[in-house]
Amino acid sequence: MGREIELKLDLTEDAASRLCRWDGLPEREDVTRLRATYFDTPDARLASKGLSLRIRQSGRRRVQTIKGDGSSAAGLFARQEWERPVRSQSPVLDGDTPVQDALGDAISQIEPLFETDVERTRWLIQEGDVRVEMVIDRGVVRAGAREAPLCEVELELVDGAPAALFAIARRIDGEVPVRPGVLSKAERGYALRGPVAEAVKAEPVSVNASMTIREAFLTIAGACLRHYRRNEALLLIEYRERALHQARVAVRRMRSALTLFKPVLLEADVARFQRELRWLAGMLGEARDLDVLHGRLVPGAQAEIAEVRADSQARVRAWLDSARVRGLLLDIAEWLALGAGCSGAADAQVWDFAGSRLKKLHKRVARGGDGLKKLPPDKRHKVRKDAKKLRYGAEFFAGVYADKGARKVHGTYVKALAKLQDRLGDLNDLATAPALFARYHLADDTGLDIRSEETLLRKAGKAHDRFASASRFWR
Which of 348, 379, 409 is the last residue of a domain? Predict the structure, then answer.
């Protein structure tokens, strides 16, 4: 069993062609064609255990590889790996691999599910004590009748520190645009077997009570960055309302994670990333406002904002293509890969820390919403933002309180919190509607479906009371 540390970067086909001619590469290169078949049970049990199994063929040589999920931080993969030569396209699954233990009797159901077919161009970069293998893979992923293009750079560490991978990545980005890649080839294949994605929701975060605070933060922040990148990738193909919304949710989740873990992070790091993430969220905000407004207007009024909406969507694409966004993603990915500069306090178990942070946020929402009916819009908006942070925190730390009783209480608590968020969101829509109408020169009788403030305040008050009295799952 070996362990690989590699940084994946996504890029376009045109960028890959230009990168192959980059002066910063050694003259010597190897070009090979690689065809790989990936195996699993029909219901993907192996993937559910965090394992992938493939047989890759290059010429007459076949190599079977099993990889474990290991740890990843938005492009940097550190995974366990089992490799062996094989004579045919049939996997060899003996006691030297983890597959038997993972599948048990279901091992007999293993079958080919999808394949990759790529041209790999390889260089070995050596700078002092650092040696990095750089490859560009260009080709396709096929699953049944469906296929998707594949174009990525892999920087694999042979000797040296992981920081060297990011130094090379930044030099590459100075030549052609690249972004941290968050999907393995296996994940791309599994995705092809499912429905076409219009957007990607946040995946469950694998945090548990045995983790340290540091491990929990790196897991949560890495999941947030992965969530963002998967939706950004969809937006770079074409504008999708749902993908934009999920990209903004991912940014908010990352900002909430920075707030939750602020006591164990360097103040300068938190300030820097909060500033840039706030800018990124704001950059996406106008398009999201127009999407929401468009969906709530009558057809005639929708036509009035069609041009400004198209312009806003074009600006989103331009901003996502910017060096500032790409640099931010590489900066966060490296920061997480190198441990996020956590203080010594982050070596403590996450249990008490999670409870104290959730308790503090709960009190802020409960007390801030007292007398909700009499609060001015700006105060209600603050309660709404705090409620979002608490909701994300409750999702992040759900696995810390995983016994049966806590799970039941968690579900009830989050449901009450979600209802409060919805009611406060309705009030925010009502408060911001006049400014939106004025900004886009819309009349007041455009058919916007917003109920009266009195009705919304009454429902929000009831939702806040139910939330404030809900049992806390972290007790």
Answer: 348
Q: Are residues 135 and 7 in the same domain?
A: yes
In a domain, 241, yes or no: yes
Q: What is the pLDDT of residues 217-228, one digit of tens each?
A: 999 999 999 999
Q: What is the pTM of this model?
A: 0.92
Q: What is the pLDDT of residues 377-435, one digit of tens each?
A: 999 999 999 999 999 999 999 999 988 889 899 999 999 999 999 999 989 888 888 88
* Domain membership of residue 218 as a residue range: 206-348
Which of 142, 175, 196 delimits the end of a domain? Answer: 196
User: In the 3-class helix/strand/coil scheme, how is the chain assigned residue by residue?
Assistant: CEEEEEEEEECCHHHHHHHCCCCCCCCCCEEEEEEEEEEECCCCHHHHCCEEEEEEEECCEEEEEEEECCEEECCEEEEEEEEEECCCCCCCCCCCCCHHHHHHHHHHHCEEEEEEEEEEEEEEEEECCEEEEEEEEEEEEEECCEEEEEEEEEEEEEECCCHHHHHHHHHHHCCCCCEECCCCHHHHHHHHCCCCCCCCCCCCCCCCCCCEHHHHHHHHHHHHHHHHHHHHHHHHHCCCHHHHHHHHHHHHHHHHHHHHCHHHCCHHHHHHHHHHHHHHHHHHHHHHHHHHHHHHCCHHHHHHCHHHHHHHHHHHHHHHCCHHHHHHHHHHHHHHHCCCCCCHHHHCEHHHHHHHHHHHHHHHHHHHCCCHHHCCHHHHHHHHHHHHHHHHHHHHCHHHCCCHHHHHHHHHHHHHHHHHHHHHHHHHHHHHHHHHHHHCCCCCCCCCCCCCHHHHHHHHHHHHHHHHHCCCCCC
- 201 within some domain: no
Number of domains making up the chain: 3
